Every structure is written in C-alpha cells, then in structure tokens.
Amino acid sequence: MDREVLEVDVLFVGGGPANLACALHIAKLFEEDGGFDETLSVLIEKGGEIGSHAISGAVMDPRGIRELIPDFLEKDCPVEAEVGDDDIWYLGKKGKLSAFWHPKPLRNHGNYVVSLGELTRWMGGLVEETGRVEVFPEFPGSELLIEDGKVVGVRTGDRGIDRHGEKKPTYEPGIDIRAKVTVLGEGAHGSLAKQLIREFDLGGKNPQVYALGVKELWQMPEGAVPPGRVYHTLGWPLPAKTFGGGFIYGMKGDVWDVGFVTGLDYEDPHTDPHGLFQAFKTHPAIAPLLEGGKMIQYGAKTIPEGGWFSRPKSHVPGALLIGDTGGNLNPLRLKGIHTAMKTGMLAAETILAALKEDDFSDASLGRFEEKVCDSWVYDELWASRNIHQGFEKGRKRGLFSAWWQIVTGGKFGGDKLDMEPGHERMQTVAEAHGPNAAPFERAKYDGEKTFNRLDDVYASGTKHEEDQPPHLVVTDPDICRTKCAEEYDNPCTRFCPAEVYEMEEDPERGGMRLRINAGNCVHCKTCDIMDPYQIIDWTVPEGGGGPRYHRL
Ligand code: SF4
After folding, report:
1. Element containing residue 251 per DSSP (H, E)
2. What is the pLDDT of residues 157-177, one digit of tens each?
3. Is the Cβ atom of 181 under 6 angstroms away from ligand 1?
4. What global pTM score does this model have?
5. Atom of ligand 1 nearest to the CA of 302
6. Among 103, 102, 39, 112, which Cα is nearest to 72's?
7. Of ligand 1's atoms, which has the minimum distance to the CA of residue 516?
8. Which of 108, 171, 466, 538 could bridge to 167 as Cys pair (CB 3.0-4.6 Å)?
C-alpha cells in the first residue's frame, strides 16, 4: 500500500509534560542558536486535543517548570493553588491518626495543586506559539519504523477500518512520519515504548512495577474547599500487604480532587482498585469532606512506581525515552511531572547537539543518559531507588524501610533491592483464599457518593468510534474461559477501572466467555500490565478515541 511519507527532523510521540517540555525547550534552543530555521519538528497525540488524555494527582513540584519557564506564573500557567495545609492520615477502619511529623521529601509546601490536563493544554498552546513544532492531535502512533537496527520514525494509525478489519468508505491510511530522532513520551507503559523495549531488549535492572490511580473530581458547595489543601492517606481500605493510599486536593471553584492509588503488585486476585476507591470515600474521615457535593469527572491511569533500577535504557539509535515512559517518576514522592519536564529539557539539549553533528547513533543520543545522571533527576531517583521494593513485604516493612531510606539517602538495604514483575506476584484464588474460597462479590453503590464503573466511565467523557477493530487484543481467549477462570477468577473484570472486561454466558459452546467492551476503555494500560498470563495487548484505537478529560 502507498502511504504518505512525511520527513521531519524531530518527532515527539505523546503530548504529555515530558514531550511538551522537550518541544518548548528545543524551540528555544533553535531560536537562540539561529541555525535551525528550516528544521521541521512534529508532535503527535492520540487524544482529541492536547490534555484530553492527561491525568495525574497532582501536586506538582515547580522545580521542573521553573527551569523551563521561569515566569510560568506571570504567563498564566493554570495552577490551581499553592499548597497550604498538608496532612498525612493513617486510616483504620473507623478512625484516623494524623502524622505528627512529615519527612522532608513528603512535605508539599512550595508545591502547587494542578490539573495535568489544564497544564498540558496550556503548554501545548505555548509550543504552537513558537511556530517551530507542528502539533497534530488525533494521530496515534501505531507502530515504530525500525530499519537496520535504528528507529527511523513512526507509522500513525489507519482510520476508517470496520470491526471486521475491512475498509469503510471513510478509510484513510496512516502516514509514515520519518524522523532523525523520535522521542517517546507516551506516559506510563506506552505501546510504542513497549515495542521498543522488547525489540531492543532495553529492560532495566529490575522490572518496571506500576500502581493504578483512580480519581474523581467533586463539585462542592461554595466555600467548602480551601484551594491548596492537601491530604494523603495510608491504610484502610487496603490490606496490609498491598501498596497504595488515598489523596484529596483542594482545587479552585470549590472542587475536591479525590483519588486512590493501588499498587499493581498485589497478591490477592480479588483485589478491585476501583472498588477500593469507592470504599475509601465512605471512611468516616473522608465522607464528611464530600458531604453535599456532586461527582463531576472521573479518570484512571497507571503510574510507573519502580524507580531508578526499573528505568529502561533510555536511548537507541534514532530514539529517546523520556518522562514516565522512561520510568523517571520519583516513587517516594509519587511525583513525576517535574522529572518529566526535566528529562524533556535534557533530551532537547541532546537532540540539538545530535542535529548539529548530524549523528543520531546510540553513542550520540546516549549523552541524554549522561545528562540525566548529572542532574537533580538522578539525585532524587537515586535517593529513592529502593523505596517500592520495601513495600513488597507489606506496609509495615515498607514504611520501616522507607523511613531508613529517607534517613540514609537510599543506602538502607544495600545498593539494589530486587523486585518481581507485579503480575507474577498475583496468587491464585486458592492460594489467596483457600480451596473453598467464596466467589467475589461486587459491592453495591448508591450512585450518589459511590459509583459503579459505568457511571464513572460516563463521567470520564470516554468515546470511541464503535465500528473499528478492538484495540484490546486478547491473544488466547480460551485461557480466559478455562485456566484464568479456574485459577484467578478472571481478575481483568476487577482490575480494569472501566468495565471493559465481562464474563458472559457463551450460547455457542456453553460455559462462560470473555466479552470486551472496548468502547469504555480509559487508556490506563492496567490490563496490559497486570494480566497474569500476559495475553492482553493494548494497542492504539482510531485517533481521537478515549477519554475527554477536563481538569484531571
Ligand atoms: Fe485500562 Fe485496560 Fe480497562 Fe482500558 S481495558 S480501561 S487500558 S484496564
């Protein structure tokens, strides 16, 4: 098939904070250098617009944005508020204990409550204003173009293919964007990064482990929410062996940003991260905060939690991995926006030098890694290098280990503690609950304070073209009806926060079969990460499909 080919110098895949920072910084460097007026750079984003798929907590450390845009506040950066009061609560089933002392890395004074969606929309506008980077929303990267061991660009997804794989009258083939450098900033567990890591064997010293964050925005009565108020919680409703906790942040306009994070290395296959979040909101310390309010938005995403030793190799000939895609999130602070921006800036400096030398080899782009190691990103990630590992032995051991690692700058436990991939830690139902385990029962939700997945998906604004091939590819559906049902009780029906996976009666063969409601998918990638048999492949749907997040 003849495809249109677009030749560019730099291709950014993904419109998150890392790539937007990289694009902004490189535009500034081109301007200062003066020799790059003919250089063509393009940023593609799978969402309907920049920001529509962006979601994070988020309390942002301004260190990254201050280096990128020193006058970001004067330039109307859409921060919600500077952090004011900041509490950490340990929740029991009925009560709470407030932490009387906050370790320095966990203090939030001087940080900002932000909506990552609004922040990236604003940054996208600044990138377009530079006139040096073309921004194309609704263009998902579906495949890496690799020639002679070198990344030479990305093929974008076709449009107008029906559910059976046939061309519709609206068919438009994707284009091949050939680039001297391709920068992958797709967020956690990007589908192209997955291909790159596999084909170039880039895995880190430890496997990457993830957590799933699920959140809602709540519109509260006037005067109910102090902007910049921050609460973090540990404990209930998580079992002691599972990593995670809750958060509540005050936004402007009397909106609470409330969410819950569950480590995707849990053992119990009956774990239900969306259900844990709904339970969290009913806790006697949390429920009064939401009294009189209305849920207005929902979203979910995964967070790369592994830290320094889980970072994949960040460079290959022709490509760089930055931000969450490169595993640059600080797992102690659960913060990655500032490190994403910084890695974007360091990538821009690396690319400028590579363009000047016309050298896009592994050695040339490898200067990015040297820059990371000479920067504060390394200082932060090295000091928190063994944080998540401690929690694999349970919350008490994790907190004890985290305490010592904070005190010793990460030295406690030796230079490197090992980790297993999260899905390998999942036990069978019999191992977790005994041979006569009761079947899993979904909690009942009232539709006012607590919501089922479908109500929440509705609040995420998620839409996909209905008549297209499923973007969730289960490579062996027979496993779902047989081994997985028997051993794990189909955990995809619980870990997916968007009611995509359902077991239904199979009228043809009898028994049960897997039904995939792909249109509900909020693109969190949990299924690709946590499936115990690793038979779910998340691929990009037709451009523009997915959530339409506002202020998440
Ligand atoms: Fe997340 Fe997978 Fe569910 Fe989509 S189908 S919402 S990627 S778990």
Report:
1. strand 244-251
2. 999 999 999 999 999 999 999
3. no
4. 0.97
5. 1
6. 112
7. 5
8. 171
